[in-house]
């Protein structure tokens, strides 16, 4: 992928060599003025490059199309299957408040304890040293156990987790479709189950003015899937019949379906931003607009980025041109 020179035979210098020193990621953005440091960082360039490379790879492709599923992808699906099983084993508890079920903390404690071993099982034998660094992003990707909330910063941590797996060569260029259609899609299903089971609060949600209470990336990647579609236009996604008929093929429609299940009342009222997007004439314009919005609303917002952690793979060091 954009960041795994080592996976192409003509390039003899892998990004991460055997004597590479990993480090446990930590927060670096503690004040609003630090945001410039983030936007100039290698991490920002790598993260955005990763998102856009995948965005390009998915253009016009259905979730149900054929693609390679590597051993690493299978192992990641096993990892997510384990998280899913733990939800079944940790039912919500009876409590006075409807939101933020405290059983989530029990579920999270299990992940906290097992994350490093789960990640080690996904990594090749010669990359085991990366497990403590990469496991941090996995733990950050499932919500906050103090506030029992989940938002786009947690979603970004999962994308960062996948980006790191590319940088160490565990995932490769030909895994691109499987990364989104298999791994990220399975992650979304597990997150939706967490959100529903433990009634998690949206983290820093802008309510009806935000795109969605919990996610952003599947709208970007999902709109890319629709580019140059012969019949389905942006105006069609607010039609429930279209959603029910095509959601298995399109990530964007899966998101709309989940919103329709979770919210009541007119779509234009509970999801105003999406309603506005449905009036954009082409999917290509929707896709470009969502990328701009993602940078402005998520990646350039201090309340989101103050929680992001930087290590050796996603480095706070300035971008080297």
Automatic annotation (TrEMBL):
Q: What is its EC number?
A: 5.2.1.8
Recite the UniProt keywords alphabetically: Acetylation, ATP-binding, Cytoplasm, Isomerase, Magnesium, Metal-binding, Nucleotide-binding, Nucleus, Rotamase
Task: Spell out the Pfam families in the cross-references.
Answer: PTPA
Q: Name one GO biological process term.
A: mitotic spindle organization
* Catalyses which reaction(s): [protein]-peptidylproline (omega=180) = [protein]-peptidylproline (omega=0)
CDD domains linked: PTPA (cd04087)
| First-tier enzyme category under EC | isomerase
What does the entry list under GO cellular component?
A: cytoplasm; nucleus; protein phosphatase type 2A complex
Specify where it is mainly localized: cytoplasm
The subcellular localization recorded is: Cytoplasm; Nucleus
Q: Which GO terms describe its molecular function?
A: ATP binding; metal ion binding; peptidyl-prolyl cis-trans isomerase activity; protein tyrosine phosphatase activator activity
PANTHER family reported for this sequence: SERINE/THREONINE-PROTEIN PHOSPHATASE 2A REGULATORY SUBUNIT B, SERINE_THREONINE-PROTEIN PHOSPHATASE 2A ACTIVATOR
Q: Which family does it belong to?
A: Belongs to the PTPA-type PPIase family.
Describe the task this protein carries out: PPIases accelerate the folding of proteins. It catalyzes the cis-trans isomerization of proline imidic peptide bonds in oligopeptides. Acts as a regulatory subunit for serine/threonine-protein phosphatase 2A (PP2A). Modulates PP2A activity or substrate specificity, probably by inducing a conformational change in the catalytic subunit, a proposed direct target of the PPIase. Can reactivate inactive phosphatase PP2A-phosphatase methylesterase complexes (PP2A(i)) in presence of ATP and Mg(2+).
- Protein name, per record: Serine/threonine-protein phosphatase 2A activator
